[in-house]
Amino acid sequence: MHLTRRGLLAASLGALATPALAPPARAQAFPNRPVRIVVPFPPGGGTDNLTRLVAERLSAALGWSVVVENKPGAGGNVALDGVAKSRPDGYTMVMAQTDNVVLNPLTYSRLPYDPDRDLMPVGLIASGAAVLVVRADAPWKSLAEFTAAAREKRGQLTFGSPGIGTVSHLILELWQRSAGIQLNHIPYRGIAQSLPDLINGQIDSYMGSIPTLRGHIEGGRVRALAVSSGQRSATLPEVPTFREAGIEGVELASVWGLMAPTGTPQEIVEQVNAAVNRMIEEPETRKRIVESGADVLGGTPAAMGQFYASERERLGRVVRDANIRLE
Fold this sequence. Notes:
By secondary structure, the chain is an alpha/beta fold. It has 12 helices and 10 strands. It has helices at residues 6-16, 46-62, 77-84, 98-107, 115-118, 143-152, 167-179, 191-199, 210-218, 266-281, 283-291, 301-322, and strands spanning 35-39, 66-70, 92-96, 119-135, 158-161, 184-187, 205-209, 222-227, 253-261, 295-296. Strands 1, 2, 3, 4, 5, 6, 7, 8, 9 and 10 form a 10-stranded mixed beta sheet that branches. The longest helix has 22 residues, at 301-322.
C-alpha cells in the first residue's frame, strides 16, 4: 500500500477501526432481499474474483443473498456512475478501487459523478501491490540492473502497463521521478496482449497485479524484479520492494472497498461494515485473500474515506506533473 504509508493506513485504521458489534435496532430487518455488488470490470480479473469471494463468504456466514453484477466500461466510471445514481437503500453497492475512486477523478477531464459527493464509503477490504516483471531470459537480474540500464539508454527501454492513468502507470511515474530515469510507456488493455509481447521481446518490462502475474512468475515465463508495496508480499516473499532495491517513494497499491450511494442510511452502512469486518477476519477468508496475492485490510467507513482522500492528494501532484489526461 502506500501502505507503508502502510504506517499511515495502519494508524488511520487503528485509530478508527472500531466497527459496531451489533447494528442498531432499525437496521435489523436488513437485508430482506438480495444485495447487489457491482464490479467495474469484466469477469475473471482481480476485482471480480475478490468481489465474488466477498459475496460467497457473506452468504455463507450471514445467510445474505448477494448478487454480483459486472458492469465494465470507461475505466470503472460506468459502474460507479450507475451505483451513484441508484436508490440509496443499502441494496446496491460497488466494489471500488484505487484506479476508479482515486485516479479517475484526477485523470479524466470530466466525470458523470463525484466520488466524494455521490458515493459514501462502507469499508476497506484488501489491497494488492503491483509487481514489475521482465522476460525470463532478460539480461537484467535485479531492479538495480534494470534502472542502471534505463539511465544509460534514456527513453529506449519500454515499460508496459494495463493502461494510461492506472496504478501501474502511476508507479512508473513515481519510479522515474525517484530514480531520474525515463522509460517508454506502452499502455495495454490487459495481460492477454502484453504477456506475449513481453516474452517475445517486443517490450522490456511490464507491471501488473500480483494475482495476474503470479502464475507466470512461478511458471518461469517471467522474472519478477520488485513489488510496489511498502513491505514484501506474502505471496512473493523472495521479491524485494522498490525501497529495498534503493528506489525511494515508489509505494502504491490497488486498494479495494465497498461504496454505496450517498444517502444510504448510516445504520445500514454500519451494519454492512461490521459484517465485512467480521467476514474478512475469518481464517478461511483471510487465507483465500492472501493466497490471491492481496493483503487484508478492514476498518471503518471514516478510515476508508480518509485513506482515499489522502491518496488523491498525494497522487494529484504526480498526475499534474506528468500531464496524464483522459477523455
